[in-house]
Amino acid sequence: MPEGPSIVILKDLIKALHLGKPEVLEVAGNANFDKDRLLHEKIQDFKSWGKHFLIRFNDFTIRIHFMLFGSYLINEHKKAPLKLGLIFKKDELNFYTCKVDLLEGNVKKHYYWENDVMANEWDSNAAIKKLKEKPQALVCDVLLDQQIFSGVGNIIKNEVLYRTRIHPLTKIENLPPAKLKALVKEARNYSFDFLKWKKENTLSKHWEVYSKKECPLKHKIEKKEIGKTHRQTYFCKKCQKLYAS
């Protein structure tokens, strides 16, 4: 599943085409909405919010969620069934194996960019406040809560918990204030490191615990599906402290 930084890369790739505000000349694919609504409409902007790619028109927005296996091609095609294809005068965008929705009205009615760890509007104080409202929640779960850390996925979750030396089964109420702040800070910091390494095609070389058998200090890595999310979690019991009441 693409994480927030990967969606930022897609947004930047499309903006690098210098499309301006392109008119949609043709629409293709099996997306389940009235695709004729897009014909001859001009795109106002391309945006990202967490794991969602947003194509903004005057009075509606197309939301694309890549789920587990979604993909896209710019000015290319593949044999897989097309979910949504947009053809402009000189370029085209094609999206596959993803979820596509049409959102009515101003996109700001649907999203708060203060939650997006990659956004300029990111509000760390708001994130800390929301975390304190979930005292019984596990840190491995809250890092994947898109209403707190929009854009954080499983790779970022695992690496942030190792960076902050927090055991994934620690409850929010048991975290010392300094560790709570560190958790929020590193969720954003690591996301931008992820973006940099992804662009360099070196991301996996920087993993410290994700998909590893040993941590950098040569301790054994535990691999378990834990928390309410039941997502695969990699952690080091020696390096990462389980805070308890």
TrEMBL record:
Pfam families: Fapy_DNA_glyco, H2TH. Residues 208-241 form the FPG-type domain. Coiled coil: none annotated. GO terms for molecular function: damaged DNA binding; DNA-(apurinic or apyrimidinic site) endonuclease activity; lyase activity; oxidized purine nucleobase lesion DNA N-glycosylase activity; zinc ion binding. Residues 2-96 form the Formamidopyrimidine-DNA glycosylase catalytic domain. The keyword Glycoprotein does not apply. It catalyses: Hydrolysis of DNA containing ring-opened 7-methylguanine residues, releasing 2,6-diamino-4-hydroxy-5-(N-methyl)formamidopyrimidine. SMART domains: Fapy_DNA_glyco, H2TH. Keywords: DNA damage, DNA repair, DNA-binding, Endonuclease, Glycosidase, Hydrolase, Lyase, Metal-binding, Multifunctional enzyme, Nuclease, Zinc, Zinc-finger. Gene3D superfamilies: 1.10.8.50, MutM-like, N-terminal. One of its GO terms (biological process) is base-excision repair. Belongs to the FPG family. This is Endonuclease. It comes from Pedobacter kyonggii.
